[in-house]
Design brief:
Layout (H helix, E strand, L loop, with lengths): L2 E6 L5 E5 L18 E4 L13 E2 L7 E2 L13
Antiparallel strand pairs: 1-2, 1-3, 4-5
């Protein structure tokens, strides 16, 4: 089963869920419990076992798993 990423329209948190393609299952945001999520395009990583996180000073955790979404306005997480 593939992993899909969803962005919460309420708090912008990105969550990953393991699901079948074409699934109609509703997901809940892990951060704010909202059910207003939108599937987002995620980066494919062919290097299994290697971390794709990068340093991101705007991200609360200090590293950002989706650095392509961090911009001059700050981190989207």
């Amino acid at each position: 089963m593939p992993i899909f990423e969803y962005r919460c329209n309420k708090c912008n948190h990105i969550s990953s869920f393991l699901e079948k393609s074409g699934s109609k299952k509703k997901h809940i945001c892990e951060k704010c419990n909202s059910d207003d999520l939108k599937k987002v395009f995620s980066m494919f990583s062919p290097q299994a076992g290697k971390s794709s996180s990068v340093q991101c000073p705007g991200c609360p955790m200090g590293t950002c798993p989706t650095a392509h979404e961090c911009g001059p306005g700050g981190c989207m997480h």
